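Appendix B. Chain record.
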Amino acid sequence: MGPLLERASDLTRAAAKLAAPTSPVAHRELRALLRSMNSYYTNRIEGEHTRPVEIERALAHDFSSDADISRRQRLAVAHIQTEQACEQALVSGQLVQSGPGLGLYSARAILHLHDLLFQGLTHQDLILSDGHSVLIPGEFRKRQVAIGRHEAPAHEAIPAFVERWAQSYAGVRKGEASIVAAAASHHRLAWMHPFADGNGRVSRLHTHLLMHSMGLTSGLWSPLRGFARTEDRYRALLQGADEHRRGDLDGRGNLSEAGLIGWIDYTIEMCIDQVEFMGEQLNIQGMQDRIRACLMFEENARKSGVRKEALIALHYLFASQEELGRAEFKAMTGLGDRVATQTLSALLKQGFLATDAPYGKVRFAIPSHALRFYFPALWPEAEKDQALVEVELRGDDEPDGAATTCPSG
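Structure tokens predicted for this chain:
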């Protein structure tokens, strides 16, 4: 445990430094973006992701006429809504890390997660790969399954296994030990394979919620991105922890202790990497430079009516202010009234600003086409997808050079 606890302590210190250097509105915008990204990545691990732009359309209730794409869109939206609902439940106390009630370490909690993730799908969506069995949301499996070389516990024993899992991890002391426990519990939950389908999604979301409940994420990072960006290691180390014990020096249970340690070490290492990455992305001075680059691109390449003089006002909204009156925003641009009004209208049309009323105050927003500038390399697939959308709109054969990923500082 010693080295693992040290790494967990490193994660705690790194996460403590990642205070959101943004206004509450900008923070909320970023969290909404990250939920979409988390949905994309967790479904990508299952080979059932869809294009980021199709997730954006689904959130606007625009679903594809293609049955498979629309099913994947529903999966994506379900994850986004479940993640948001559970994070809010953690804040309100309806969902807690451990203890009485709906604790995260409980059969009730994982059944609830599974139900939320799949209850919005159609009957056709829920038909399993055998072609006739149907997944029942929020219900433990009723049949025997094998995943690769791993044969999961008998379905009759699942309630007892889950109860033992809950008792073991809910009682771990707070602090670094609870981080180690969160990593271990991910593997143990996946190993039990309690559902006919959706076990990976539930396990990953459960780990995300555990990290969030410990105050480590601030809504600014998630292990889900890290798992998907290191998918080969993720799969190999999960499988390694499935292996049977290799002799008397490999733990005391049926499974390999060395394999479990390898998995835990990887999980904590990956979490630290995600925290440090987001720390770089949220650097205040760096953000100002990235907003400037985006506005210059809009003005010179896209010719959308957006002007670089909006930089100070946009950065002010990102860094410290929730909303600005329109007159105040225009004054900060230093432009004449007519040009400032045109610029403000262009910023609203292009999604750089949002408002609740035709003449109401404006607030910071993150349009998908600005992602490659604002948070370069955060979600490369979305950046590439947006470039393809721009190509489709222009009717070109290839994206121009300006549509590629903006290098980070």
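Further analysis of this model is presented in Appendix C.
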